[in-house]
Amino acid sequence: MSSAQHLTDLAEGLAEAGHEVVAVASSRGYDNPEKRFPVRETWKGVEIRRIWTPGLGKKARWRRLVDFATFWINATLILLRLRRFDVTVCLTSPPLISSLGQVMASLKGGAVVPWVMDLNPDEAVAAGWLKQGGLAEQVMSTLQKWSFGRAARIVALDRFMAERLRAKSVRADAIHVDAPWSHDDAVRWDVAGREAFRAEHGLTGKFVVMYSGNHSPCHPLDTVLEAAKELAGHATLHFLFVGGGSEHGKVRAFAENQGLKNITCLPYQPKERLSSSLSSADLHLVVMGTPFVGMVHPCKVYNILALGLPFLGIGPEECHLTDLAARLPDRRYARIGRHGDVKGLVEVLREAAATGPLPPSEESRALAAEFSQSRLRPRLIDVIAAAGQGHAA
Question: Which residues of the chain have pLDDT under 70?
């Protein structure tokens, strides 16, 4: 899960900077609830407390609700026993966990800094999981407004998310805008790894179009899958879906039901294989669902830029992907498509395959440097430290 990886990076950076860091997280794996972690451990100077949940998974809404409710209850019990903190950084999974952070800060003191990886209940309403104006949405919106209104700082991921926060009456001076960083330490252009990964999965000689990461309704793949169906007879085009999430199984089912041999599905790859996996693509797909602009952020694009590889962004005209694409002069490295335009996407993919693999772009890498961990993580650490000093006991 990207948010967990970024929080891990942040915690490690805070510890390296001399801060005392305690992390409270689930004891189960995000995409594989069967995977369990120790209840307590110390990792690279970070004290970790883990929360038990039943691990019912994401196959039904009631399962998610029970997991979230259990997380909230057990997190409350752990936080009540822990000491006062100068700053509590809250992510957004499970939803509105920043409200719990604010309750604890009210009891014990200290600042709260929500790091808004996704914006709920807005996302849940846009996805059809919650009814707008319903009791659950109203309660969640009230909690969101209360917790955000009391936050020392709020970290938004792009200008669209910042606009949404301002529309919710969040103070402009409380909002800090920075994207999630690329993983400089784990991602590099790997020629040998590329060839080995492609050979391992029968992709040698193919033009590989890859979607890598979380497969979620926020990043709808319907247009891509229909394009793959149209291109089933293409001699070299092959679609590779790597990752997990609620929609990953649907991609696999679509390929099986349609009898498509030009689609391969793989699980999340270990961090040590991330370079070879990402380097194996000739064109990366980055998808932003139209209703979700400003609610979620296409963070996978930064690793792609760091490699210098081409990407095809699929989303609305006004979104962060379009902003990034406009900054790359060579359009072969930053193509943009629209949801529902299967014919247009097929043409773009045929053109890309006819051009063939492109060498890594220095312009893309230069743009990626603006979103590197070495640049953005220290900036966020400074924001957090300043928030703590403003709420010192």
Answer: 1, 29-33, 56-59, 391-393
